[in-house]
Amino acid sequence: IKREGRPTTKETLTSRLMDRPIRPLFPKGFKDEVQVQAFVLASDRQTDGDVLAMNGASAALSISPLPFLGPIGSVRVGRIDGRLVAFPTHDQLESSDLDLIVSGSEDAVAMIEGFARELPEEEMAEAIVFAHGIIRELIALQKELVAKAGKPKRAYVADDGKELLDQLRSRYYQEFRAAKQTEGKQARAEAVKAIKTRAIAEMIPDPAAPDAIPMSKFGNCWHDLEEEIVRNLILSGTRPDGRDSRTIRDIQCQVDLLPRVHGSAVFQRGETQALITITLGTARDEQRVDGLVEEYSKKFMLDYNFPPFSVGECRPIRGPGRREIGHGMLAERSVKPVLPGPDEFPYTIRVISDILESNGSSSMASVCGATLGLMAAGVPISNPVAGISIGLVYESDDQFTLMTDIIGDEDHFGDMDFKVAGTQNGITGIQLDLKITGITEKVIRATLVQAREARIEILRKMLTAIPRPKEEISAHAPRLVRTKIDPDKIGLLIGPGGKTIRGIQEQTGTVIEVQEDGTVLIAGTDMEWTQKALDHVEALTATVQVGKIYNGTVNSIREFGAFLEILPGRDGLCHVSEISDGYIDNVSAILSIGDEFPVQVIEVDDHGRIKLSRRRALQELGQEDPLAEKIKAVGGERPPRGEGRGEGRGGDGGGRREGGGGGGRRD
Fold first, then answer.
1. Residues 453, 246: contact at Cβ < 8 Å?
2. Which residues contact 498 (CB under 8 A, 6 or more apart)?
3. Is 5 exposed, middle or buried (0-12, 13-18, 19+ CB in 10 A)?
């Protein structure tokens, strides 16, 4: 479909990158609809438009009359040969071990999205600090633009409802605070709901009265009071569910739940549960991706589903939304660095994470569950990956609280959701979302340290369920083998009109894919038949090697020896003198059409004619000659040298084929 339709995955992810740092920079209470659109009008196919669009959005909002608290700058950072590079090209990113996007103001970082190849925390922090230096330059440019082209800002004063908030605080603060400490998400919600219902009845006895408090105003003030209570509890050392700031909720891991799929796992952390299923496919299952850059194919896909029942809601399902696409890509790119290369594991891999229950970071649960599922499916990952979300309640650099493994209330009323995924060696994925205008380097470094401690603890729990990838893949997965043939022999394998390759596929029940470089992939449901197809392909395209022993089949007998097929379409002559150590007067009395026995290639001449030896093959294999007695029984007197059967004329098989030729391709 070439006409523009719904946003592609890439466009959806770019929209999220633009939205996340901008959203907190509108005043509290500002409810007007604001739409920012960015179009790529031309592309050099080397510079990604996402970061340009992020800076363009900030510049447009800054010169507009909207009450935007910017500008902010955005930069992509790569690391090539240990050197940090700002705004790397697509080609440079191919060799980079870091792909990091950072947004921020002059004083603080507002958003982070990055992926790396197990980058240590200290080196990730240095990359973020480097990015912030570039951001200051971008903001200076935007301020210059605002000075020249900016419009006067529209005055905006929000109704903060201070008087009503003070009333609610004086009447309900203490019991509201006690209700917010009820254990269990559902029980806590019911306790809060009961107080709110009573407060509405007492504060608004007659909603139709002219002087009645508007319900919208009451709802806003009640929300503000709830936020105040949650934040005060956290700053005083009490989280809503009673944990301290570094404790992770109970973790449960299980693999191989589903009997028919290629791999499965459940990862549960507190009230967040992810069910993972793994499917292994062939090259035909790769996903083709078309966009501004050259079309490419993906061999690894992780799809994230968030059904409404996971949070107790009832709503229609209309395909994945922006949140689902973003969470799935975060988990996919966090796991991808530990996957084996196609040479080691040629399967196409699809991971599906279905969130069955959610109260806390489900994207990081997907990362943990995907690792378990991949190991259960027999995918030889290099290291297990785990992820955790760190929250924040911030008053100042001297008064803030970081929270490991945040729950829904802490995410909603807190200031930060900082997700960090990685292995024991370093970070593979990082994502920062803020509700405040930014955080400092001190908070970022402290968060990375706390996230690493949690990640190591989670990895220990995960490895108790499955310590390493299984040696074998599922019996239900396709059996996939590969080989490499001479590209010049691809036509021989395919055959006229595809006849040869179709015949092998039909005979063995396999699917054979041939690539231009000579790589041949064979997939089947049964390993025995898959191996037979591989043997057939290799035999058909093999090059005859001098000294190698083949299993030959007699297809023609002459007085001077026998012709044997050693590879499909390739035969050679086993001269009578090379059949056995004993004297043979009549070859047809010893051998028959269809006889099979080992032969060694002793020569391939300039014309491609092949000379074979049965007796040398038996000597090499250390076997007795099973025809010895038969030869002795029918043998005659050896004639004088130079007489009979062309020994003097043809030697070991020289001359034309009828009179002792050296074999070659069958016509």
1. yes
2. none
3. exposed
10-residue mean pLDDT series, the chain (667 residues): 82 96 92 93 93 98 96 98 97 96 97 97 98 98 98 86 92 93 88 95 92 91 94 90 93 96 97 97 88 87 97 91 96 98 93 97 98 98 98 93 95 96 98 96 97 98 97 91 89 91 93 91 90 88 89 94 89 94 90 95 90 95 91 65 42 38 41
Residues linked to residue 98 through DSSP beta bridges, in sequence order:
116
How far is it, in rounded angstroms, from Cα 529 to Cα 507? Answer: 9
> Alpha helix locations (H) across 542-613?
587-590
Count Cβ atoms below 10 Å from residue 305 Cβ, excluding itself.
18
Beta strands in 143-262 (DSSP E): 251-255
Give the 3-state secondary structure of residue 416. Answer: strand
**From start to end of 270-398, where are the E strands?**
272-281, 287-289, 296-298, 300-305, 348-357, 386-396
Query: CA 399 from chain center: how many Å?
Result: 39
Residues 6+ apart with CB under 8 A from 24: 110, 434, 435, 436, 437
Strands annotated E in 399-494:
399-404, 416-422, 427-434, 479-484
Pairing of strands 570-575, 251-255: unpaired
For 473-487, the DSSP string reads --TTSPEEEEEE--G
Q: Which of 83, 80, 71, 70 is nearest to 130 (CA)?
A: 83
* Contact present, 231 and 436 (Cβ < 8 Å): no
The CA dihedral of 468, 472, 475, 479, to the nearest 10 degrees, is 130
User: Could you tell me if 465 and 372 are in contact, meaning their C-beta atoms sit under 8 angstroms apart?
Assistant: yes
Report residue 463 as tokens. Answer: 């490895």
User: Distance between CA atoms of 54 and 93, rounded to whole angstroms?
Assistant: 19
CB 7, CB 15: distance < 8 Å: yes
Task: Indicate the DSSP class of residue 651.
Answer: T
**Strand 416-422 and strand 251-255: pairing?**
unpaired
The rounded distance, in Å, linking the Cα atoms of 319 and 338 is 29
Q: Which amino acid is at 296?
A: Y
CA distance 659 to 558: 9
Is the separation of the CB atoms in 288 and 297 below 8 Å? Answer: yes
> Which of 93, 139, 137 is CA-nearest to residue 115?
93
**Tokens 């380097």 sit at which residue?**
441
> How much is the pLDDT for 386?
98
∠ CA 445-447-451, nearest 5°, is 120
Contact status, residue 128 vs residue 74, Cβ threshold 8 Å:
no
What are the structure tokens assigned to 440, written together? 């400092």
pTM to 2 decimals?
A: 0.82
Region at 55 (left for phi over 0; alpha for psi -120 to 50; beta for the rest) = alpha
Residues with Cβ within 8 Å of 252's Cβ and at least 6 positions away in sequence, in order, are 266, 267, 268
Give long-range contacts, CB 8 A cutoff, 24+ apart: 591-594: 591/554, 591/557, 591/562, 592/554, 592/557, 593/554, 593/555, 593/556, 593/557, 594/553, 594/554, 594/555
Task: Name 52's Cβ contacts closer than 8 Å, sequence gap at least 6.
Answer: none
Q: What is the pLDDT of residue 635?
A: 61
Q: Which helix (H) or strand (E) holds 267?
A: strand 263-269
pLDDT of residue 538: 86
Spatial distance between the Cα atoms of 339 and 323, rounded to a whole number of angstroms: 25
